[in-house]
């Protein structure tokens, strides 16, 4: 059995100091910062000496050569384990990890409270027409308050695409505080499980037709990419509100803009974008019916502390020979276990 520390590399920065504090308390770990202020080849050489990779979850913040793809993994034969910095893992190809025998985990649930609060906050602000009222006041067009007639969230029908950690907490808030009827479209869960999470299981068509508010809480996958397109917006109730705190590319931004301009969709709250941050001339940033945030739903002191601590503990688990929780590619386990034993001289269980 090797006594060498389990070396973990990260590019540029970590989301919160808690990661460094937690890993520093484990003598089995060695954490290496790989700065962006050096040639790409030097960065790759440093990462090639690592057993684990703590990878940014936001695809536009991480240089493309360091996205976890077949090409990168071919340069990292020592790599055993990848952990994303959040619940998402857009810069990582799970199938490439499986082909390379590399275990992948995320930090699902660590920021669920922050994201759920953000989603519900957007629903409230849009139904009350905050952005339109603000824009009208700035333009000197707010002489009559009735022009900003809003709606209550109480008793509305809210449709959730996805009811995992964030969707479940969102449903809980909507049920407890606003007595909403909550619908959920999630093909991976049965009706009983969804009911236990506070919602009714429905198909996509039913959710779009019946929801006053549509909120997206599913990961970006080949199945969900482009799922909320022009046809989906057209199928929503006239005057529906659209909210997403999930991932860019699930909804079609141009189709949303057209639906807003036609008046079919009343308002939208967008925390995620095709390009992050979006260009300053993006039309949705300048639409008074839109509240825009920069993928900050989960960026709170509490959630960042939690997700980075969870990640640090996952690296400690692997260093100690334990399978970590939140595995994204479970099919890799046998090959990963064989590679781990060959590299570390001990079994992982």
Offer a quick outline of the entry.
The protein has 349 residues and is α/β, with parallel strands linked by helices.
Report the strand count. 12
- The run of helices and strands is EHEHEHEHEHHEHEHEHEHEHEEHH
> How much of the sequence is in beta strands?
15-25%
Q: How many helical elements?
A: 13
Q: Percent range for helical residues?
A: 25-40%
Let me know the average pLDDT: 96
InterPro entries: D-2-hydroxyacid_DH (IPR050857), D-isomer_2_OHA_DH_cat_dom (IPR006139), D-isomer_DH_CS (IPR029753), D-isomer_DH_NAD-bd (IPR006140), NAD(P)-bd_dom_sf (IPR036291)
Family: Belongs to the D-isomer specific 2-hydroxyacid dehydrogenase family.
Pfam families: 2-Hacid_dh, 2-Hacid_dh_C
Domain D-isomer specific 2-hydroxyacid dehydrogenase NAD-binding: 120-297
Outline the fold blueprint.
Elements: E1 6-11, H1 17-24, E2 29-34, H2 40-47, E3 52-55, H3 70-74, E4 81-84, H4 94-100, E5 103-105, H5 112-127, H6 130-138, E6 157-161, H7 165-178, E7 181-185, H8 191-196, E8 200-201, H9 204-210, E9 213-216, H10 230-235, E10 240-244, H11 253-262, E11 265-270, E12 290-292, H12 301-319, H13 333-344
Parallel strand pairs: 1-2, 1-3, 3-4, 4-5, 6-7, 6-9, 7-8, 9-10, 10-11, 11-12
Question: How would you describe what is shown here?
Answer:
The protein is α/β, with parallel strands linked by helices. It is built from 13 helices and 12 strands. The chain has helices at about 15-25, 40-45, 70-75, 95-100, 110-125, 130-140, 165-180, 190-195, 205-210, 230-235, 255-260, 300-320, 335-345, and strands at about 5-10, 30-35, 50-55, 80-85, 105, 155-160, 180-185, 200, 215, 240-245, 265-270, 290. The strands form 2 sheets. Strands 8-7-6-9-10-11-12 form a 7-stranded parallel beta sheet, sandwiched between helices. Strands 2-1-3-4-5 form a 5-stranded parallel beta sheet, with helices on both faces. Helix 1 runs parallel beside helix 12 and helix 5 (about 110-125) packs across helix 7. The longest helix is centred in the last third of the chain and has 19 residues, at about 300-320. It is elongated, with a radius of gyration of 22 Å. The protein starts with 5 loop residues before the first strand and ends in a 5-residue tail after the last helix.
């Amino acid at each position: 059995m090797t006594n060498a520390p389990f070396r973990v590399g990260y590019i540029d920065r970590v989301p919160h100091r808690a990661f460094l504090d937690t890993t520093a308390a484990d003598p089995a770990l060695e954490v290496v910062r790989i700065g962006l202020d050096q040639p790409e080849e030097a960065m790759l050489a440093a990462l090639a000496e690592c057993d684990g990779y703590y990878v940014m979850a936001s695809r536009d913040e991480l240089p493309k050569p360091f996205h976890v793809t077949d090409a990168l993994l071919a340069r990292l034969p020592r790599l055993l384990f990848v952990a994303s910095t959040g619940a998402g893992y857009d810069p990582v190809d799970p199938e490439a990890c499986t082909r390379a025998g590399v275990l992948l985990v995320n930090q699902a649930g660590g920021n669920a409270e922050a994201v759920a609060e953000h989603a519900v906050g957007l629903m409230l602000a849009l139904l009350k027409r905050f952005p339109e009222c603000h824009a009208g006041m700035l333009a000197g067009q707010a002489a009559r308050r009735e022009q900003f007639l809003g709606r209550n969230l109480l008793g509305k029908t809210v449709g959730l695409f996805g009811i995992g950690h964030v969707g479940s907490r969102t449903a809980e808030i909507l049920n407890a505080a606003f007595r909403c009827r909550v619908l959920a479209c999630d093909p991976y869960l049965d009706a009983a499980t969804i009911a236990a999470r506070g919602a009714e299981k429905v198909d996509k068509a039913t959710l779009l037709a019946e929801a006053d508010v549509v909120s997206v809480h599913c990961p970006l996958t080949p199945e969900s990419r482009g799922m909320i397109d022009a046809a989906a917006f057209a199928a929503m109730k006239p005057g529906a509100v659209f909210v997403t705190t999930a991932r860019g590319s699930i909804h079609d931004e141009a189709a949303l803009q057209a639906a807003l301009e036609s008046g079919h969709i009343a308002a939208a709250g967008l925390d995620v974008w095709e390009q992050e941050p979006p260009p300053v001339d993006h039309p949705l940033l300048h639409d008074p019916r839109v509240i825009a945030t920069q993928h900050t739903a989960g960026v709170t002191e509490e959630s960042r502390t939690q997700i980075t601590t969870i990640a640090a503990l996952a690296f400690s688990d692997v260093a100690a020979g334990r399978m970590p929780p939140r595995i994204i590619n479970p099919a890799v386990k046998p090959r990963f276990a064989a590679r781990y034993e060959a590299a570390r001289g001990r079994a992982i269980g």
